[in-house]
Fold these 2 entries.
Entry 1:
Amino acid sequence: MSEPQTSPAAPAEARPTVVVDDVHVDYTVYAAGKRATSERKLLRRAPSLRQARTVHALKGVSFTAHEGESIGVIGHNGSGKSTLLRAIAGLTTPTRGTVYADGRPALLGVNAALINELSGERNVILGGLALGMSPEEIRGRYQEIVEFAGIGEAVDLPMKTYSAGMGARLRFAIAASATHRVLLVDEALAVGDAAFRRRSEERIRELRAEAGTVFLVSHSMGTIKETCTRGIWIDHGELRADGPVLDVVAAYEASVR
Amino acid sequence: MSAGETSPSPAARFAAEAGLERLGRRPALVEYGRELWQRRHFLLELSRSRFRGQNEENRLGLGWVLVRPLLNAVVYGVVFGLLLASSTRPDNFVPFLVIGIFVFQYFAGCLNDGSKAITSNLGLVRTMHFPRAVLPVSVVLQQVYALAPMMGMAAVVALVFGEPLTWRWLLVVPALVLMTMFCQGVAFVAARATLHVRDVAQLLPFVTRLLFYISGLFYSIERVGLPPAAEAVAKVNPVQVYITLVRTGLLTEVEAGWHLWALGIGWAVVALVGGAVFFWRAEEAYGRE
């Protein structure tokens, strides 16, 4: 469809790692019926047969990412940032359009589903296997993962006894243990205490050096400006701006104000 | 339009030049099977963990794996053996009933948990990349873990009620292998169907209950006195077929001819192949729901 644009922030000779070509993603939801036209109707409306509604989460996004870039993806809640990340990770297949990538990009989230009834230890093993590590690799990295998460003795307890922060830290530690050519980070820096944030920021920097390209979704403009070279602003499923991170963040902040 | 299928778009050519791969394309069935095999450690760990997780909540822990079928056998034994006594029962009724109930529970577990295989694991599906078939296969594996102690219990019951231990008992193995193939196919179909139409999950309890009553768990179909045509139809029911095949192994009274084994093989192959293909064809859709 559209000609992929070379980012102004990237050196012209840098190798492309991700090409996002006119990507549309639609979700079908069975959540609500017709929109109520007045407040009275809203109150009166009996639960009727639910209708399938289509939500356009992404409406034709195109860009190219290059080696050595770290790209901050910004936008308000529900703008389609996380959908874009999942599409780049190959987890959500676009309804239209295509994503091309170097290897399989890894999505580093804090939402990685683990089993709450099981101990942290079993979850580390399960999470590592889910990421595609071999049992030997996991045994080799187990200590490192547990130390990184900083959950100490609690690793023997079921995850449902963990605080929200502890659970998120362990998930992040598992996800960050593998290295990938393209890395997608979703709000991961927002979890945990100051010490853990420092550790995770450092780990992301390391991963970026090994990875080549990093995408970061965050609501913290400070984090985006510090860690990213390029900014992509997604607004209601469309690409609103793409350029040097400071320019894009400034434009976004101006629109919010 | 999708790029790169008939005439490559500029972006597709650009990506190809840079050596990039197209993501989210469904692999061919053989390649898919290979990916599934590569993830066997994940599959085993997931099944084991879930199985343990479901039981570890209780004081008795994994003890429930044995206690639950025992209590079930006692309850159904009292209801159908004492309260609802009838002339449709075969002679050695208790082991007949126990085997029927346990084998049926295995099937019902695969059907019901299979229908939730994707929908209850959306978190995993949305964050991790692996062949989605891992989830329905894991569901069946968990049911196999639950079935093993049940079959042990059934064997004990058969011995206690005077069934002789013979080489025929080995027939239980092929019977359960065939049934597992069938159940896997059912789990594949249920997993995908529920994803498209969530309402399927609401219908399943009724399907399960219907099969419970028509499958000759607590009566012998031959003794009901159905018209020959109806009896023939009732005997084609796959759940009925597999229950009879397992009973053939443990109970001297029950005999299965070659045609019943042929039916068992037929149902197993049709369900497994059809189910696997049906599930695989929607591989791209599972992350979008």
Entry 2:
Amino acid sequence: MKTMRFLLLGAAVVMLAATQTLGAATATSNVSVSATVAATAKLSLSSSTVSFANADPDTTPSIAATEGAITITAKGKTATGSTISLTVLAAADLTSGSDTIPISNVTWTASGTGFAAGTMSKSAAQTVGSWTTSGSRAGTQTYALANSWNYPTGSYTATATYTLTAP
Amino acid sequence: MAVHAVSKTRFVLPVLLMAVSGLLLATPSALYAQSVTLSLSQNSFSFASADPDSTPTITGSPAITVTYSVSGTKSGGGWTMTLLAGGNLIAGTATIPISNMTWTATPKPVFQDGMMSNSLAQTLASGLGNKSNSTGMVTFSLANSWSYNVGTYTASIIFTITAY
């Protein structure tokens, strides 16, 4: 009789276990996903012109740009560990007919993370900003022209090119 | 003799009751043997590179058609389909949080939209009763950002259907 008792108990336990095993049915399927992020650079300036008004060198030794601060937005996607750089390069000196003002008399101050102050050059691109990771950055650049009694009268012009590089 | 008979009844009755209760518990599963199937139209999809300003959200391509069947559900029983990512999107040491990936799915209300997770399975669809070769379409999207580093990112997603 003891043997019978254990057999019946065992059967009950097996049935309970079977109930749990059969309680849920599951199926799975996998899918792989890929996302490509390509190197991209995008630059915008709030103004495409900078002008300096005539002024008395004694009272205004440094002429601020009429436009005030230029807002620069530099956006770039780069590889991990690479540096995004923003430079500016003048094509030539300020020129009015045969008269010139050295472009190095134009300087700027800057605000914003990664932006830097500098002096304009026509021979080597000057750094306006640099960043070590991908991202969107905004800053300002305020130009000034060193005034001088030596400048011949005239309306001087020059062009400068900004280059944003995201390697 | 009378004492012997009483003792026998006291011993056999509980054992029989236990056996019968075991049979009763086992019977529903035997009668309602649940079965589910799940298949996907694609085993991969991708997001193309895009300008975050003009394309703040990148649509994955192609969309995935899910075909599923559920049978043997108990009275009042149902099923759920979930998505779980194996990890974040990874390209070398660079990562994009998998939570930046979302999906839209149809038909509703069986299917629902959601956001990917690599820690907790997210419900893609759910319902009651049996289904035979039913379908749904899932389109994944990735929030675009200038902060993403250059690379080809990969991740895996597990679709799971469970009947209960």
